[in-house]
Specification:
The complex is a heterodimer of chains A (392) and B (98).
Chain A lengths: L5 E5 L26 H14 L3 E5 L9 H10 L3 E6 L6 H9 L4 E6 L4 H8 L4 H12 L4 E8 L7 H10 L4 E6 L4 H5 L1 H4 L3 H17 L5 E5 L19 E4 L5 E2 L20 H7 L1 H4 L17 H4 L4 H8 L15 H20 L17 H5 L4 H7 L7
Parallel strand pairs in A: 1-2, 1-8, 2-3, 3-4, 4-5, 5-6, 6-7
Antiparallel strand pairs in A: 8-9
Helix pairs in contact in A: 1-2
Chain B lengths: L7 E4 L4 E3 L7 E4 L2 E4 L2 H10 L3 E2 H11 L6 H15 L3 E4 L7
Antiparallel strand pairs in B: 1-5, 1-6, 2-3, 3-4
The chains are: A alpha/beta (392), B alpha+beta (98).
Chain lengths: 392, 98
Protein backbone atom coordinates (compact mmCIF):
# COMPACT_ATOMS: atom_id res chain seq x y z
CA UNK A 1 0.00 0.00 0.00
CA UNK A 2 1.53 3.27 -1.12
CA UNK A 3 2.05 5.82 1.65
CA UNK A 4 -0.03 9.00 1.57
CA UNK A 5 1.74 12.24 0.71
CA UNK A 6 0.29 14.20 3.58
CA UNK A 7 -1.18 13.96 7.03
CA UNK A 8 -3.74 16.57 8.08
CA UNK A 9 -3.62 17.09 11.83
CA UNK A 10 -6.77 18.58 13.35
CA UNK A 11 -5.08 19.61 16.58
CA UNK A 12 -8.27 20.88 18.17
CA UNK A 13 -11.85 21.72 17.27
CA UNK A 14 -11.69 24.82 19.45
CA UNK A 15 -11.80 27.96 17.36
CA UNK A 16 -12.53 31.60 18.08
CA UNK A 17 -14.34 31.96 14.75
CA UNK A 18 -17.74 30.56 13.78
CA UNK A 19 -17.38 30.41 9.99
CA UNK A 20 -20.61 29.42 8.32
CA UNK A 21 -18.76 27.32 5.73
CA UNK A 22 -16.66 25.31 8.18
CA UNK A 23 -15.93 21.75 7.03
CA UNK A 24 -15.55 20.42 10.59
CA UNK A 25 -18.19 17.90 11.60
CA UNK A 26 -21.25 19.12 13.48
CA UNK A 27 -20.15 17.00 16.45
CA UNK A 28 -16.98 18.79 17.59
CA UNK A 29 -14.41 17.07 19.81
CA UNK A 30 -14.36 18.27 23.41
CA UNK A 31 -11.09 19.72 24.72
CA UNK A 32 -10.65 16.99 27.30
CA UNK A 33 -10.45 14.36 24.58
CA UNK A 34 -7.67 16.01 22.56
CA UNK A 35 -4.43 14.17 21.89
CA UNK A 36 -1.55 15.29 24.13
CA UNK A 37 1.69 16.83 22.93
CA UNK A 38 3.46 13.50 23.33
CA UNK A 39 0.76 11.71 21.36
CA UNK A 40 1.06 14.17 18.50
CA UNK A 41 4.87 13.90 18.55
CA UNK A 42 4.62 10.12 18.37
CA UNK A 43 2.16 10.45 15.48
CA UNK A 44 4.64 12.68 13.60
CA UNK A 45 7.33 10.01 14.03
CA UNK A 46 5.00 7.32 12.78
CA UNK A 47 3.92 9.49 9.86
CA UNK A 48 7.50 10.02 8.73
CA UNK A 49 8.27 6.34 9.16
CA UNK A 50 5.25 5.49 6.97
CA UNK A 51 6.71 7.73 4.22
CA UNK A 52 4.48 10.78 4.63
CA UNK A 53 6.15 14.04 3.53
CA UNK A 54 3.78 16.89 4.46
CA UNK A 55 2.11 17.62 7.81
CA UNK A 56 -0.74 20.15 7.85
CA UNK A 57 -1.66 21.64 11.22
CA UNK A 58 -5.26 22.75 11.30
CA UNK A 59 -8.38 22.43 13.43
CA UNK A 60 -10.49 24.33 14.57
CA UNK A 61 -7.78 26.87 15.14
CA UNK A 62 -4.35 25.27 15.70
CA UNK A 63 -3.10 28.39 17.50
CA UNK A 64 -5.56 27.50 20.27
CA UNK A 65 -3.03 24.80 21.26
CA UNK A 66 -0.37 26.33 23.54
CA UNK A 67 1.91 23.40 22.65
CA UNK A 68 1.82 24.13 18.92
CA UNK A 69 5.55 24.96 18.88
CA UNK A 70 6.38 21.56 20.32
CA UNK A 71 4.22 19.79 17.77
CA UNK A 72 5.78 21.73 14.88
CA UNK A 73 9.23 20.95 16.28
CA UNK A 74 8.33 17.26 16.43
CA UNK A 75 7.26 17.36 12.78
CA UNK A 76 10.53 19.05 11.79
CA UNK A 77 12.52 16.59 13.86
CA UNK A 78 10.79 13.75 12.05
CA UNK A 79 11.71 15.31 8.67
CA UNK A 80 8.19 16.39 7.71
CA UNK A 81 7.41 19.63 5.86
CA UNK A 82 5.06 21.59 8.11
CA UNK A 83 2.12 23.72 7.03
CA UNK A 84 0.06 25.85 9.40
CA UNK A 85 -3.56 26.35 8.31
CA UNK A 86 -4.78 29.22 10.43
CA UNK A 87 -7.26 32.06 10.86
CA UNK A 88 -4.45 34.08 12.43
CA UNK A 89 -6.42 34.58 15.62
CA UNK A 90 -4.03 33.95 18.51
CA UNK A 91 -0.98 34.90 16.43
CA UNK A 92 1.46 37.54 17.63
CA UNK A 93 4.74 38.56 16.01
CA UNK A 94 6.67 36.80 18.76
CA UNK A 95 4.61 33.65 18.35
CA UNK A 96 5.19 33.65 14.60
CA UNK A 97 8.94 33.95 15.11
CA UNK A 98 8.99 31.13 17.62
CA UNK A 99 7.02 28.90 15.25
CA UNK A 100 9.52 29.64 12.50
CA UNK A 101 12.33 28.82 14.88
CA UNK A 102 10.60 25.53 15.68
CA UNK A 103 10.86 24.76 11.96
CA UNK A 104 7.52 25.82 10.45
CA UNK A 105 7.83 25.87 6.64
CA UNK A 106 4.57 27.38 5.41
CA UNK A 107 1.68 29.47 6.69
CA UNK A 108 -1.74 29.48 5.06
CA UNK A 109 -3.85 32.36 6.35
CA UNK A 110 -7.58 32.52 5.73
CA UNK A 111 -9.55 35.60 4.74
CA UNK A 112 -13.32 35.61 4.72
CA UNK A 113 -13.60 38.79 2.67
CA UNK A 114 -11.91 42.02 1.66
CA UNK A 115 -13.59 44.32 4.14
CA UNK A 116 -14.30 44.07 7.83
CA UNK A 117 -18.08 44.18 7.66
CA UNK A 118 -18.62 41.37 5.20
CA UNK A 119 -15.65 39.25 6.30
CA UNK A 120 -16.71 39.32 9.94
CA UNK A 121 -20.29 38.42 9.09
CA UNK A 122 -19.06 35.18 7.45
CA UNK A 123 -16.58 34.45 10.23
CA UNK A 124 -19.15 35.11 12.94
CA UNK A 125 -16.58 37.16 14.84
CA UNK A 126 -14.47 40.31 14.57
CA UNK A 127 -11.32 38.92 13.00
CA UNK A 128 -10.53 40.71 9.76
CA UNK A 129 -8.54 43.55 11.27
CA UNK A 130 -6.22 41.22 13.14
CA UNK A 131 -5.72 39.07 10.04
CA UNK A 132 -4.37 42.11 8.19
CA UNK A 133 -1.69 42.50 10.84
CA UNK A 134 -0.84 38.80 10.75
CA UNK A 135 -0.48 38.95 6.97
CA UNK A 136 2.01 41.78 7.31
CA UNK A 137 4.09 39.84 9.87
CA UNK A 138 4.14 36.71 7.69
CA UNK A 139 5.05 38.68 4.60
CA UNK A 140 7.98 40.30 6.36
CA UNK A 141 9.50 36.93 7.37
CA UNK A 142 11.12 34.41 5.08
CA UNK A 143 8.39 31.77 5.18
CA UNK A 144 6.10 30.42 2.46
CA UNK A 145 2.81 32.32 2.57
CA UNK A 146 -0.53 31.29 1.10
CA UNK A 147 -3.78 33.21 1.41
CA UNK A 148 -6.91 31.08 1.47
CA UNK A 149 -10.13 32.71 0.33
CA UNK A 150 -13.37 30.78 0.56
CA UNK A 151 -15.89 31.91 -2.04
CA UNK A 152 -19.65 31.48 -2.29
CA UNK A 153 -22.80 33.30 -3.24
CA UNK A 154 -22.21 36.17 -0.82
CA UNK A 155 -18.82 37.22 -2.19
CA UNK A 156 -18.43 35.83 -5.71
CA UNK A 157 -19.73 39.06 -7.26
CA UNK A 158 -16.68 40.83 -5.83
CA UNK A 159 -14.20 38.12 -6.90
CA UNK A 160 -12.02 40.36 -9.08
CA UNK A 161 -11.63 42.89 -6.26
CA UNK A 162 -11.06 40.11 -3.73
CA UNK A 163 -8.27 38.62 -5.83
CA UNK A 164 -6.62 42.03 -6.03
CA UNK A 165 -7.01 42.44 -2.28
CA UNK A 166 -5.49 39.02 -1.56
CA UNK A 167 -2.60 39.69 -3.96
CA UNK A 168 -1.87 42.94 -2.13
CA UNK A 169 -1.20 40.96 1.06
CA UNK A 170 1.96 39.61 -0.58
CA UNK A 171 1.57 35.81 -0.57
CA UNK A 172 3.28 33.51 -3.09
CA UNK A 173 0.07 31.52 -3.48
CA UNK A 174 -3.63 32.22 -3.42
CA UNK A 175 -6.08 29.40 -2.89
CA UNK A 176 -9.60 30.29 -3.99
CA UNK A 177 -11.83 27.59 -2.62
CA UNK A 178 -15.48 27.24 -3.47
CA UNK A 179 -17.46 25.97 -0.52
CA UNK A 180 -17.93 22.23 -0.43
CA UNK A 181 -21.16 21.16 1.26
CA UNK A 182 -20.18 19.13 4.31
CA UNK A 183 -20.33 19.88 8.00
CA UNK A 184 -21.45 23.42 8.78
CA UNK A 185 -21.39 24.43 5.12
CA UNK A 186 -24.15 21.94 4.45
CA UNK A 187 -26.26 23.59 7.16
CA UNK A 188 -25.81 26.91 5.38
CA UNK A 189 -26.05 25.63 1.84
CA UNK A 190 -29.09 27.76 0.96
CA UNK A 191 -27.25 30.99 1.69
CA UNK A 192 -23.91 29.87 0.29
CA UNK A 193 -24.79 28.16 -2.99
CA UNK A 194 -23.75 30.37 -5.90
CA UNK A 195 -25.87 30.77 -9.00
CA UNK A 196 -24.71 29.13 -12.21
CA UNK A 197 -24.02 32.59 -13.64
CA UNK A 198 -21.83 33.48 -10.67
CA UNK A 199 -19.95 30.22 -11.03
CA UNK A 200 -19.33 30.61 -14.76
CA UNK A 201 -18.27 34.21 -14.35
CA UNK A 202 -15.88 33.26 -11.56
CA UNK A 203 -14.12 30.73 -13.77
CA UNK A 204 -13.49 33.47 -16.36
CA UNK A 205 -12.30 35.94 -13.70
CA UNK A 206 -9.87 33.42 -12.24
CA UNK A 207 -8.45 32.56 -15.68
CA UNK A 208 -7.94 36.21 -16.39
CA UNK A 209 -6.30 36.83 -13.01
CA UNK A 210 -3.98 33.85 -13.45
CA UNK A 211 -2.66 35.38 -16.64
CA UNK A 212 -2.46 38.93 -15.33
CA UNK A 213 -0.64 37.87 -12.14
CA UNK A 214 1.38 34.97 -13.59
CA UNK A 215 4.78 36.27 -12.51
CA UNK A 216 3.73 37.43 -9.06
CA UNK A 217 1.21 34.99 -7.68
CA UNK A 218 0.27 31.39 -8.16
CA UNK A 219 -3.48 30.91 -8.03
CA UNK A 220 -5.12 27.56 -7.26
CA UNK A 221 -8.87 27.40 -7.79
CA UNK A 222 -11.20 24.78 -6.39
CA UNK A 223 -14.37 24.94 -8.50
CA UNK A 224 -17.78 24.14 -7.03
CA UNK A 225 -18.98 20.72 -7.98
CA UNK A 226 -22.78 21.04 -7.86
CA UNK A 227 -22.67 22.57 -11.35
CA UNK A 228 -20.28 20.01 -12.78
CA UNK A 229 -21.26 17.01 -14.85
CA UNK A 230 -18.31 14.90 -13.78
CA UNK A 231 -17.43 14.49 -10.11
CA UNK A 232 -14.21 15.56 -8.45
CA UNK A 233 -11.54 12.93 -7.76
CA UNK A 234 -12.25 13.50 -4.10
CA UNK A 235 -9.04 13.59 -1.99
CA UNK A 236 -7.30 11.89 -4.93
CA UNK A 237 -9.23 8.73 -4.08
CA UNK A 238 -10.42 7.20 -0.79
CA UNK A 239 -7.47 6.80 1.59
CA UNK A 240 -4.94 7.37 -1.16
CA UNK A 241 -3.04 10.69 -0.99
CA UNK A 242 -4.05 12.01 2.40
CA UNK A 243 -4.84 10.94 5.93
CA UNK A 244 -6.64 13.05 8.57
CA UNK A 245 -6.21 12.70 12.30
CA UNK A 246 -9.01 14.33 14.27
CA UNK A 247 -8.43 16.00 17.65
CA UNK A 248 -9.16 12.78 19.55
CA UNK A 249 -6.78 10.75 17.39
CA UNK A 250 -9.27 9.14 15.02
CA UNK A 251 -7.77 8.52 11.58
CA UNK A 252 -10.04 9.40 8.67
CA UNK A 253 -9.64 9.52 4.92
CA UNK A 254 -11.24 13.00 4.78
CA UNK A 255 -12.98 15.65 6.92
CA UNK A 256 -16.47 14.34 6.33
CA UNK A 257 -16.13 10.54 6.45
CA UNK A 258 -17.57 10.37 9.98
CA UNK A 259 -21.03 10.82 8.46
CA UNK A 260 -20.93 7.45 6.70
CA UNK A 261 -22.67 4.89 8.92
CA UNK A 262 -21.21 1.47 9.56
CA UNK A 263 -17.56 2.52 9.36
CA UNK A 264 -15.38 2.19 12.43
CA UNK A 265 -12.42 4.55 12.25
CA UNK A 266 -9.46 3.56 14.41
CA UNK A 267 -7.54 5.89 16.66
CA UNK A 268 -3.78 6.41 16.84
CA UNK A 269 -4.26 6.01 20.59
CA UNK A 270 -5.14 2.37 20.07
CA UNK A 271 -3.40 1.28 16.89
CA UNK A 272 -0.16 2.00 15.04
CA UNK A 273 -0.55 4.48 12.20
CA UNK A 274 0.96 2.06 9.69
CA UNK A 275 -1.60 -0.62 10.50
CA UNK A 276 -4.44 1.91 10.33
CA UNK A 277 -3.33 3.10 6.88
CA UNK A 278 -2.49 -0.26 5.38
CA UNK A 279 -4.79 -2.78 7.04
CA UNK A 280 -7.72 -1.19 8.83
CA UNK A 281 -11.13 -2.12 7.40
CA UNK A 282 -12.36 1.48 7.30
CA UNK A 283 -9.38 2.75 5.27
CA UNK A 284 -9.75 -0.15 2.86
CA UNK A 285 -13.53 0.18 2.55
CA UNK A 286 -13.57 2.18 -0.70
CA UNK A 287 -10.12 1.49 -2.11
CA UNK A 288 -9.87 -0.22 -5.50
CA UNK A 289 -13.10 -0.77 -7.41
CA UNK A 290 -14.63 -3.97 -5.99
CA UNK A 291 -17.05 -1.92 -3.89
CA UNK A 292 -18.40 0.00 -6.90
CA UNK A 293 -21.91 -0.38 -8.24
CA UNK A 294 -23.09 0.77 -11.65
CA UNK A 295 -22.60 3.13 -13.35
CA UNK A 296 -19.11 3.42 -11.77
CA UNK A 297 -18.25 -0.27 -11.92
CA UNK A 298 -17.96 -0.42 -15.69
CA UNK A 299 -17.13 3.24 -16.30
CA UNK A 300 -13.84 4.07 -18.04
CA UNK A 301 -13.46 7.14 -15.79
CA UNK A 302 -13.43 5.11 -12.59
CA UNK A 303 -9.65 5.31 -12.37
CA UNK A 304 -9.80 9.07 -12.98
CA UNK A 305 -12.44 10.27 -10.51
CA UNK A 306 -13.01 7.08 -8.46
CA UNK A 307 -16.76 7.61 -8.70
CA UNK A 308 -16.48 10.99 -6.97
CA UNK A 309 -17.06 11.59 -3.28
CA UNK A 310 -18.34 8.82 -0.96
CA UNK A 311 -19.51 11.28 1.65
CA UNK A 312 -21.43 13.31 -0.87
CA UNK A 313 -22.97 10.13 -2.32
CA UNK A 314 -24.11 9.22 1.20
CA UNK A 315 -25.35 12.73 2.11
CA UNK A 316 -27.34 13.19 -1.07
CA UNK A 317 -28.46 9.66 -1.99
CA UNK A 318 -28.40 7.81 1.33
CA UNK A 319 -25.85 5.25 0.13
CA UNK A 320 -22.09 5.75 0.14
CA UNK A 321 -21.46 3.20 -2.60
CA UNK A 322 -23.54 5.10 -5.15
CA UNK A 323 -21.95 7.26 -7.79
CA UNK A 324 -21.45 10.81 -6.54
CA UNK A 325 -24.66 12.39 -7.89
CA UNK A 326 -22.63 15.25 -9.37
CA UNK A 327 -21.85 12.75 -12.12
CA UNK A 328 -24.20 13.13 -15.08
CA UNK A 329 -24.33 9.32 -15.34
CA UNK A 330 -25.69 9.00 -11.81
CA UNK A 331 -29.39 8.15 -11.63
CA UNK A 332 -29.52 10.82 -8.91
CA UNK A 333 -27.92 13.56 -10.97
CA UNK A 334 -31.17 15.50 -11.32
CA UNK A 335 -31.23 15.78 -7.55
CA UNK A 336 -28.04 17.85 -7.56
CA UNK A 337 -29.35 20.06 -10.33
CA UNK A 338 -32.63 20.63 -8.54
CA UNK A 339 -30.89 21.35 -5.23
CA UNK A 340 -28.73 23.99 -6.86
CA UNK A 341 -31.75 25.51 -8.54
CA UNK A 342 -33.91 25.39 -5.42
CA UNK A 343 -31.27 26.83 -3.09
CA UNK A 344 -30.45 29.72 -5.37
CA UNK A 345 -34.12 30.41 -5.96
CA UNK A 346 -34.77 30.60 -2.21
CA UNK A 347 -31.76 32.90 -1.83
CA UNK A 348 -32.95 35.15 -4.63
CA UNK A 349 -36.38 35.51 -3.01
CA UNK A 350 -34.87 36.23 0.39
CA UNK A 351 -32.56 38.84 -1.12
CA UNK A 352 -35.40 40.46 -3.04
CA UNK A 353 -37.29 40.76 0.25
CA UNK A 354 -34.23 42.31 1.90
CA UNK A 355 -33.81 39.46 4.36
CA UNK A 356 -30.37 38.62 5.68
CA UNK A 357 -29.38 34.93 5.52
CA UNK A 358 -30.34 32.80 8.49
CA UNK A 359 -26.79 31.73 9.16
CA UNK A 360 -26.15 28.68 11.31
CA UNK A 361 -22.91 29.69 12.99
CA UNK A 362 -20.46 27.00 14.03
CA UNK A 363 -20.88 26.41 17.75
CA UNK A 364 -19.67 23.74 20.10
CA UNK A 365 -22.34 21.23 21.03
CA UNK A 366 -21.98 19.98 24.56
CA UNK A 367 -23.97 16.80 24.05
CA UNK A 368 -25.57 15.01 21.12
CA UNK A 369 -28.70 16.82 20.08
CA UNK A 370 -27.74 19.93 22.05
CA UNK A 371 -26.86 21.83 18.88
CA UNK A 372 -30.36 21.68 17.50
CA UNK A 373 -31.92 22.62 20.81
CA UNK A 374 -29.58 25.47 21.64
CA UNK A 375 -28.85 26.89 18.20
CA UNK A 376 -30.27 30.36 17.62
CA UNK A 377 -33.70 29.97 16.12
CA UNK A 378 -34.38 33.24 14.39
CA UNK A 379 -32.50 35.18 11.75
CA UNK A 380 -32.12 38.00 14.26
CA UNK A 381 -30.57 35.68 16.86
CA UNK A 382 -28.18 34.25 14.30
CA UNK A 383 -27.05 37.66 13.14
CA UNK A 384 -26.59 38.92 16.71
CA UNK A 385 -24.54 35.86 17.62
CA UNK A 386 -21.85 36.91 15.19
CA UNK A 387 -21.09 40.29 16.71
CA UNK A 388 -18.70 38.98 19.33
CA UNK A 389 -14.99 39.85 19.07
CA UNK A 390 -12.82 36.83 18.41
CA UNK A 391 -10.42 35.75 21.13
CA UNK A 392 -8.12 32.76 20.94
CA UNK B 1 20.32 33.62 -23.99
CA UNK B 2 22.57 32.20 -21.30
CA UNK B 3 22.38 33.48 -17.77
CA UNK B 4 25.06 35.98 -16.79
CA UNK B 5 27.73 34.18 -14.76
CA UNK B 6 27.07 36.22 -11.64
CA UNK B 7 23.29 35.78 -11.36
CA UNK B 8 22.48 34.48 -7.92
CA UNK B 9 20.56 31.26 -7.52
CA UNK B 10 18.64 30.25 -4.43
CA UNK B 11 15.81 27.93 -3.49
CA UNK B 12 12.54 29.85 -3.44
CA UNK B 13 10.85 30.75 -0.16
CA UNK B 14 9.36 27.65 1.42
CA UNK B 15 11.30 25.21 -0.78
CA UNK B 16 13.34 22.69 1.12
CA UNK B 17 15.40 19.76 -0.06
CA UNK B 18 15.03 16.61 1.97
CA UNK B 19 17.73 13.95 1.76
CA UNK B 20 16.46 10.42 2.28
CA UNK B 21 19.03 7.73 2.98
CA UNK B 22 19.40 5.31 0.10
CA UNK B 23 16.89 7.19 -2.04
CA UNK B 24 16.87 10.18 -4.39
CA UNK B 25 16.34 13.50 -2.59
CA UNK B 26 12.92 15.13 -2.49
CA UNK B 27 12.08 18.79 -2.96
CA UNK B 28 9.31 19.91 -0.63
CA UNK B 29 7.21 23.05 -1.06
CA UNK B 30 3.64 24.18 -0.35
CA UNK B 31 1.14 21.65 -1.70
CA UNK B 32 3.79 19.87 -3.78
CA UNK B 33 6.58 17.34 -3.78
CA UNK B 34 9.19 16.90 -6.52
CA UNK B 35 11.33 13.80 -6.61
CA UNK B 36 14.76 14.54 -8.07
CA UNK B 37 17.06 12.18 -9.87
CA UNK B 38 20.62 12.15 -11.16
CA UNK B 39 21.78 15.49 -12.50
CA UNK B 40 18.70 17.33 -11.22
CA UNK B 41 19.46 16.21 -7.67
CA UNK B 42 23.09 17.33 -8.03
CA UNK B 43 22.05 20.76 -9.25
CA UNK B 44 19.42 21.40 -6.59
CA UNK B 45 21.68 20.16 -3.79
CA UNK B 46 24.23 22.79 -4.74
CA UNK B 47 21.75 25.63 -5.05
CA UNK B 48 20.50 24.95 -1.54
CA UNK B 49 22.82 27.34 0.20
CA UNK B 50 23.02 29.87 -2.62
CA UNK B 51 25.40 29.99 -5.57
CA UNK B 52 26.05 32.12 -8.58
CA UNK B 53 25.51 30.47 -11.94
CA UNK B 54 29.27 30.45 -12.54
CA UNK B 55 29.96 28.84 -9.17
CA UNK B 56 27.34 26.18 -9.83
CA UNK B 57 28.80 25.32 -13.25
CA UNK B 58 32.29 25.23 -11.78
CA UNK B 59 31.26 22.74 -9.12
CA UNK B 60 29.34 20.59 -11.57
CA UNK B 61 32.28 20.44 -13.99
CA UNK B 62 34.56 19.50 -11.09
CA UNK B 63 32.19 16.78 -9.89
CA UNK B 64 31.51 15.44 -13.39
CA UNK B 65 34.71 15.97 -15.41
CA UNK B 66 33.51 13.79 -18.28
CA UNK B 67 30.33 15.82 -18.78
CA UNK B 68 31.65 18.06 -21.53
CA UNK B 69 30.13 21.04 -23.30
CA UNK B 70 26.48 20.14 -23.00
CA UNK B 71 26.56 20.53 -19.23
CA UNK B 72 26.31 24.33 -19.26
CA UNK B 73 23.34 24.39 -21.61
CA UNK B 74 21.52 21.50 -19.96
CA UNK B 75 22.02 23.05 -16.54
CA UNK B 76 20.67 26.38 -17.69
CA UNK B 77 17.62 24.73 -19.26
CA UNK B 78 16.94 22.85 -16.04
CA UNK B 79 17.29 26.03 -14.01
CA UNK B 80 14.80 27.82 -16.24
CA UNK B 81 12.29 25.00 -15.70
CA UNK B 82 12.81 25.18 -11.93
CA UNK B 83 12.30 28.93 -12.10
CA UNK B 84 9.06 28.54 -14.06
CA UNK B 85 7.78 26.21 -11.36
CA UNK B 86 8.80 28.78 -8.74
CA UNK B 87 11.25 26.36 -7.16
CA UNK B 88 14.24 28.69 -7.45
CA UNK B 89 14.83 32.41 -7.39
CA UNK B 90 17.21 33.94 -9.90
CA UNK B 91 18.50 37.38 -9.02
CA UNK B 92 20.56 39.54 -11.32
CA UNK B 93 23.61 40.97 -9.62
CA UNK B 94 23.37 44.75 -9.38
CA UNK B 95 25.97 47.35 -8.62
CA UNK B 96 29.73 47.00 -8.14
CA UNK B 97 32.31 48.15 -10.67
CA UNK B 98 34.09 45.48 -12.70
Amino acid sequence: MKAPLSIICELTHRCPLRCVYCSNPLELTARGLELTTAEWAATMEQAAELGILHAHFTGGEPLARPDLNAIVAAARQAGLYSNLITSGIGMTEARLDSLLEAGLDHVQLSFQGGDELRADEIAGARAHDHKLKVAEWIRSRRVAFTVNLVVHRRNLDELAELIAFCASLGPQRLEIANVQYYGWALENRTALMPTREQMERSVRIVESAKQALAEKLRIDFVPPDYYASQPKACMGGWASQTLIIDPGGRALPCHAAGVIPGLNFDSVRQKPLRWIWTDSPAMNQYRGDDWMVEPCRSCPRKTVDFGGCRCQAYLLTGNATNADPVCMLSPHHDLVKSIAAAETSISRCAEADGKSPGWVYRIFNLSPGARKADAPQTNQDRTEACKQPATA
Amino acid sequence: MMFAPNVKLALAIGCRLREVEGQPPILLMPEAVVRLHGAGAEIVRRIGSGRTFAELLGELHAAFPGAGDRLDQDTEEFLRRLHEKRIIEITACTGGAK
